[in-house]
Design brief:
Serine Threonine Protein Phosphatase 5, Tetratricopeptide repeat; 2 domains; 164 residues
């Protein structure tokens, strides 16, 4: 082996050795500085939150979620349709509302939301949801069917109003 090759090997070995010790030092928690304590900053430690209410919603419990998220809206629609067919109308309503928040100009969640609200007996909100669906998708294939539903719900709402 020539002296030049030996020198190259030695340099390569030294570079690898220093890189591995640097990497190992970064991974070793003993080589890291401890996290600062509140006394280091002169600030008091904040008290832990004691609010134990369950606010489990896809949009409210995750503030890091983007406002416009079409993929999340599609997923919310799929889950909402599943809940609607399963018979869990409240869960379906929540999912359709989450889909609307994730993709506001998306008309389909409004139609399904109107259907779920109608099943739940919420006539006026169902009318508003159906109307919003028709505003967003004026040439929908089922536009005539939805308009008939709106008329039917108006008549039922008027009957309920007269009884009161």
């Amino acid at each position: 082996m020539t002296a030049r090759r030996q020198l190259r090997r030695l340099v390569a070995t030294m570079i690898l050795a220093s890189a591995s010790t640097t990497f190992a030092g970064a991974q070793d928690p003993q080589n890291q500085d401890p996290p600062p304590t509140p006394a280091d900053h002169g600030a008091a430690k904040p008290a832990p939150k004691t609010d134990k209410r369950n606010t489990d919603s896809a949009t409210t419990s995750a503030p890091d979620q983007p406002t416009w998220d079409p993929l999340r809206a599609d997923k919310d629609m799929q889950v909402g349709e599943y809940y609607l067919h399963k018979g869990d109308v409240d869960a379906a309503i929540d999912r359709f509302q989450d889909a609307i928040l994730a993709k506001p100009g998306y008309g389909l969640p409004f139609r399904y939301l109107g259907e779920a609200q109608e099943k739940k007996g919420f006539k006026k909100p169902a009318i508003k949801s159906y109307q919003r669906y028709l505003e967003l998708v004026p040439r929908a294939d089922d536009a005539d069917k939805v308009k008939k539903k709106i008329e039917k719900l108006y008549k039922e709402a008027e009957k309920d109003k007269d009884r009161s």
